[in-house]
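Regression test case RT-17, inverse folding.

Input:
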């Protein structure tokens, strides 16, 4: 492990998933991330155990995902003592990370000027649903709304024949992408501060992340003035070699062979249909595009003759890109995932084993350190002692209700 952020302290006043994911990524890179939680309720995502989103008696995986490796400090920021404690921590930090709305930041006195009054060199990072400006700056949102629905992703991935827009592939799909972008931006701001001495304010949003993910589609829609961007079903792929096909056992194989003239002879030979090489309907890229429905049908028929297990060794001989369409549980045992340490084996605070996808970048060919999330207020005493509070003072603060 290379702790590229070793020595960096982050004070995080945030909840749910999008912005906390940025803090979680930084813990894997070596940063000390202090998660500030209310002494009584904590991060509301801790309560998801009662909503059916966590298996009975199992690991709170949706809390572990964005809170790995952090230290939990339980402070009541509405009290004078709690706010003073927060600013004491701020004075020792490099980054302040929050997803509180403008009015809440103002009310709690944790806005940019409030924080910089105690640490003028701190990077102040904000994440929101739809940005800090405009008529919706005070409106909250989740990735299903601000990232998925609003930016055209849902409409563009949904076949017209379905009759309704599909939902996200899974929970926190947009959150983890937005958090990754925000963590990268914070890293860049730290680099800028080192070079120039200037402390920046960093802003990200789910709306911006979704628009970025749709960048090519949005640009194309505007360029061609198309309200509905062209879509296709597998039986009508414009390039039959960039498509998904069903095998005999109802598994699917996705091909991405953009240079179809290069890959067509090799592919159809491997599929046991070499006669398609000289078929006048398919003997050039232009003709395959013109006769795409027939070409898709020919490839579909070929794939349907064998199971995926039978096709796999044959497909492995090809030069073009292809992949099995896997289920999420299969990813855990994917040989490439295992070989590259893309998933970490962990235990929660009760000793229950679980797996968590590690940060998607590595340094010096080594994964970061993935650790479990903290219990509510687990590190309050420890952190306050580190910044100079005695145990007697900590007990007084507990009695007053300012801390847990």
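Golden output:
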């Amino acid at each position: 492990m290379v702790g590229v952020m070793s020595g960096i302290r982050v004070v995080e006043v945030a909840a749910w998933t999008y912005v906390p994911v940025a803090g979680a990524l930084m813990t894997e890179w070596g940063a000390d991330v202090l998660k500030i939680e209310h002494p009584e309720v904590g991060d509301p995502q801790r309560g998801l155990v009662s909503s059916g989103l966590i298996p009975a008696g199992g690991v709170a995986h949706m809390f572990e995902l964005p809170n790995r490796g952090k230290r939990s400090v339980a402070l009541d920021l509405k009290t004078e003592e709690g706010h003073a404690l927060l600013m004491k921590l701020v004075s020792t930090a490099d980054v302040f990370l929050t997803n509180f709305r403008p009015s809440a930041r103002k009310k709690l006195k944790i806005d940019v000027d409030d924080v910089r009054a105690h640490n003028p060199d701190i990077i102040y990072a904000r994440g929101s649903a739809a940005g800090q400006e405009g008529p919706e700056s005070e409106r909250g949102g989740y990735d299903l709304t601000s990232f998925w629905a609003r930016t055209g992703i849902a409409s563009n991935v949904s076949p017209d024949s379905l009759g309704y827009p599909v939902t996200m592939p899974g929970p926190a799909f947009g959150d983890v992408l937005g958090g990754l972008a925000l963590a990268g931006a914070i890293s860049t701001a730290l680099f800028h501060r080192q070079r120039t001495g200037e402390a920046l304010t960093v802003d990200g949003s789910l709306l911006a992340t979704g628009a970025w993910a749709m960048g090519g589609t949005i640009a194309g829609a505007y360029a061609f003035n198309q309200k509905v961007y062209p879509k296709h079903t597998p039986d009508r792929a414009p390039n039959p070699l960039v498509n998904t096909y069903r095998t005999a056992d109802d598994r699917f194989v996705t091909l991405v062979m953009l240079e179809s003239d290069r890959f067509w002879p090799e592919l159809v030979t491997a599929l046991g249909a070499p006669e398609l090489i000289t078929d006048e309907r398919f003997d050039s890229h232009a003709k395959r595009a013109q006769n795409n429905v027939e070409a898709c049908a020919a490839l579909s028929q070929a794939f349907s003759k064998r199971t995926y297990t039978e096709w796999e060794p044959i497909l492995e001989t090809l030069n073009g890109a292809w992949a099995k369409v896997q289920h999420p549980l299969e990813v855990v045992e994917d040989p490439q995932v295992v070989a590259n340490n893309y998933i970490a084996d962990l235990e929660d605070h009760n000793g229950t084993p679980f797996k968590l996808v590690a940060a998607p970048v590595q340094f010096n060919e080594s994964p970061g350190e993935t650790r479990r999330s903290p219990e509510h207020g687990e590190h309050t005493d420890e952190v306050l002692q580190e910044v100079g509070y005695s145990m007697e003072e900590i007990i007084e603060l507990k009695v007053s209700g300012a801390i847990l």
